[in-house]
Amino acid sequence: MSSLPNCPKCHSEYTYEDGSLLICPECAHEWSLESGAEDSGDIKIVKDANGNILNDGDSVTVIKDLKVKGSSSVLKIGTRVKNIRLVDGDHNIDCKIEGFGAMKLKSEFVKKIL
Question: First and final CA of the chain: distance in angstroms?
Answer without folding.
Answer: 53
